[in-house]
Design brief:
Elements (H helix, E strand, L loop, with lengths): L1 H30 L4 E16 L6 E15 L26 H29 L1 E4 L2 E3 L6 E7 L2 E2 L3 H13 L4 E6 L5 E6 L12 H4 L13 E4 L13 E5 L2 E2 L3 H10 L3 E9 L2 E12 L2 E3 L2 E3 L6 E4 L3 H27 L11 H14 L1 H20 L6 H14 L5 H31 L1
Antiparallel strand pairs: 1-2, 3-16, 4-5, 5-6, 5-7, 7-8, 9-15, 10-11, 10-12, 12-13, 13-14
Length: 438
């Protein structure tokens, strides 16, 4: 089921993002009176093809959902040879348009991705998105503190904290956390970090040294499925031991169950302030032990954030701007070796994230789509030949000098761009395999 959700989530996500990106190129090209020959989502063999009677544009949906393209009428081939185009049709050719129109057409794809991100963020904030309250324990005390702001920027969920910390680390800023204790008192805590923290693999929250207090760590039963093997268990049972092995957290309980399929387990639990003993049978599911219970959720540790339309739109624009700037800066750090390349994700990770967010609900899936849309827009703006950003560099040169780059240079740059993109994809796929199958 998880695999199916990942595949479905990935196809939906990439399909929406790529279609909207290519539609940006398409609609601006049409606005500039450029003839569009093909509008294609995906690569490889077409699954569906339709041709417009009015414009003769061919619309295709292909088998490999890893991209798309818009083919426009041009007077020359990519190699610089003349195309079989009549002079009377030159006014409809992309390469015959002035440089400002070409810049508008090429930049429209990434810009439409950023617009789509604003739409998805707005829908997310209006619909409401849940999260865990950011709670930590300071090194010099056992008391818990909730983070309410990072450098005076209000935060409500761990995701908010993560973005603000990344933004400040990127700018080499001092980080001051505003914390609220159980007595509702506010204190400031300076978060000290080394400039090389981005070189570490994994989550910035952990790497920067925050002592996170995770909710639901107690081994307390929340729900019990109706099965004969677990009929002795009841909700609110707090597990003390299993087969004389002490259980101190829910993770320890889950680990024991997973590691011991097809066995009987003698459980000592606390129920209604009394200690009781009973036996359960651990079943097998997908080669792991399975008991059919879930942990009790501490609802006080969770928060659902909802805004009206105006505030949702304002926050969506801010979120899109933050993620765009952050993505550019992170790529810059990767290029100069100040960020860990192992944190680079590829299609397999995107599929996994898509499947999980789809299971969690509409808001989480929309939030992921917004982030992916920003990433796709930023990626295409990079000054790499073969990408939109590479073409924008060509047109900027033409705008400044008044002449096009030589075809020999463009062909050499295209070869370099293919090699660079291939290397990035290899690294991303390798990271995906190591992350998923480790």
């Amino acid at each position: 089921m998880e695999l199916i959700n990942s595949i479905v989530g990935f196809i939906i996500a990439i399909g929406i993002l790529v279609t909207f990106h290519e539609y940006g190129h398409f609609i601006v090209a049409r606005f500039c009176n450029v003839k569009v020959l093909k509008f294609c989502v995906g690569f490889g063999k077409p699954i569906f093809t339709s041709k417009s009677k009015d414009t003769s544009t061919e619309y295709s949906l292909c088998m490999i959902p890893l991209g798309g393209y818009v083919q426009m009428l041009e007077s020359k081939t990519p190699e610089g040879e003349p195309n079989d185009v009549k002079e009377s049709e030159y006014r409809y050719c992309f390469d015959k348009k002035n440089v400002y129109q070409r810049i508008a057409i090429v930049s429209a794809g990434p810009i439409f991705n950023l617009i789509l991100a604003i739409v998805f963020f707005t829908m997310t904030y209006m619909n409401g998105i849940g999260g865990i309250k950011p709670t930590i324990k300071l090194n010099d005390t056992n008391d818990s503190y909730q983070i309410v702001s990072v450098n005076n920027e209000s935060v409500q969920r761990w995701q908010d904290v993560r973005i603000e910390i990344l933004n400040n680390v990127m700018n080499d800023n001092n980080i001051i956390l505003s914390l609220r204790n159980k007595n509702n008192e506010l204190i400031n805590h300076t978060l000290r970090y080394h400039s090389s923290v981005l070189n570490n693999e994994g989550d910035i929250i952990t790497n920067i040294g925050l002592n996170v207090i995770y909710p639901n760590t107690q081994p307390t039963i929340g729900t019990v499925s109706n099965q004969p093997n677990n009929s002795n268990i009841q909700p609110d049972d707090k597990i003390i031991s299993v087969n004389d092995i002490s259980i101190n957290s829910w993770d320890e309980f889950v680990t024991y169950i997973h590691d011991n399929p097809n066995t009987n387990a003698s459980i000592v639990a606390e129920r209604s302030n009394s200690t009781i003993n009973y036996t359960v049978q651990i079943l097998e599911k997908n080669n792991y032990g399975f008991l059919g219970v879930s942990k009790k959720i501490d609802k006080s540790s969770f928060i659902n954030v909802t805004y009206n339309f105006n505030n949702s739109l304002i926050k969506a624009i801010s979120s899109t701007s933050d993620y765009t700037i952050l993505t550019f800066k992170m790529i810059g750090r990767l290029v100069i070796g100040e960020a860990n390349v192992k944190n680079l994700s590829g299609p397999l990770s995107i599929a996994q994230f898509s499947g999980k967010s789809l299971e969690m609900g509409l808001s989480y899936f929309l939030y992921l789509l917004a982030i992916l849309s920003v990433s796709l827009g930023v990626l295409n703006l990079l000054p790499i030949p073969m990408l939109d950003g590479g073409h924008l560099i060509y047109y900027t040169y033409e705008m400044i000098t008044g002449k096009e780059l030589s075809m020999q240079f463009q062909m050499a740059a295209q070869f370099l761009g293919i090699a660079l993109l291939g290397l990035i994809m290899i690294i991303a796929f390798y990271n995906d395999f190591m992350r998923i199958f480790s």
